[in-house]
Design a protein that fits this description.
Number of strands: 12
Shape: rod-shaped
Number of domains: 2
Strand content: 25-35%
CATH class of the largest domain: Mainly Beta
Radius of gyration: 65 Å
Structural class: alpha+beta
Order of helices and strands: HHEEEEEEEEEEEEH
Largest sheet: 10 strands, antiparallel
Number of helices: 3
Length: 265
């Protein structure tokens, strides 16, 4: 009985030793695994760090290589080659400037030629303004000329005076005709030149017929044709009462008296 108990105790101890052994072994294995994992993790971190450093170093190496190549290229040039390059750059700049100047001059010449060759076209349908020509209102001798700068002697006033028209000698009742087509502006008794007819014409011309006897052929505002009868010669001009019967005739351009002899044709 004691022997069995002893054997049983021995067996239990043996089993306990095995369990302890298994536990220790398991702990060792777990520790080994943990240590291995830690070492492996450190190794990975180191590899990554080494790889990153390698990339940075490679970038620095590339930059250094580029600088070295640039420096080597500059150093490898001779003084003559450098001067030639500078001269070529200056020639290119000069050529560019000359080209720009030539283009500007050509453009200016083209613009000038275009302006010179451009002609102003007259609008279609524009009618030519014909120059007026005046006929003699009565046939007869011019007994007193136009005189604005030179004086003429007045028998009536018995002095030298200016004369703003011409006096055409004609008998009383001689028919006076319109010197040019126009519109009768006025029929009046002028205090100096007596019964007077004024006709307006194109291009700001007016004709004045004074020292009349009658104006029975026209009325104010009437349109008359060239050569149409408008009145008769008389002797109504106070300033020329001492003269023989005549027609005092004036032409005005822009309300200024001009020499009728120049315009009568």
């Amino acid at each position: 009985m004691k022997k069995d108990i002893r054997l049983k105790n021995i067996g239990d101890k043996h089993i306990n030793d095995k369990i302890i052994s298994y536990v220790v072994m398991g702990a060792i294995i777990v520790a080994i695994i943990i240590i291995s994992l830690l070492l492996y993790s450190q190794k990975i971190n180191k590899d990554v760090k080494d790889e990153t450093m390698t990339l940075e170093e490679m970038t620095g190496v590339l930059e250094n290589n580029n600088e070295t190549e640039s420096a080597s290229t500059e150093i490898g040039k001779t003084v003559e080659e450098s001067e030639n390059e500078i001269q070529q750059e200056e020639m290119q700049n000069t050529t560019t400037q000359n080209t720009t100047i030539n283009e500007t001059v050509e453009s200016s010449n083209v613009s000038t030629n275009t302006e010179q060759n451009t002609t102003v076209e007259e609008p279609e349908g524009t009618e030519e303004v014909k120059e007026l020509t005046f006929q003699k209102p009565v046939e007869g001798e011019i007994v007193r000329e136009f005189a604005q700068e030179n004086l003429v002697y007045s028998e009536t006033l018995e002095e030298w005076v200016t004369h703003n028209g011409i006096d055409i000698k004609a008998d009383k009742t001689t028919v006076v005709k319109a010197a040019e087509a126009g519109v009768v502006k006025s029929i009046k008794n002028d205090p100096r030149y007596g019964l007077t007819i004024v006709i307006e014409h194109d291009d700001t011309y007016q004709t004045v017929y004074s020292n009349l006897l009658t104006s029975e052929f026209v009325v104010e505002g009437e349109t008359v044709e060239k050569g149409q009868s408008i009145g008769t010669v008389g002797n109504s001009a106070v300033f020329e009462i001492a003269d023989e019967p005549h027609l005092h005739f004036e032409i005005l351009k822009d309300a200024i008296q001009v020499d009728p002899s120049i315009y009568i044709k």
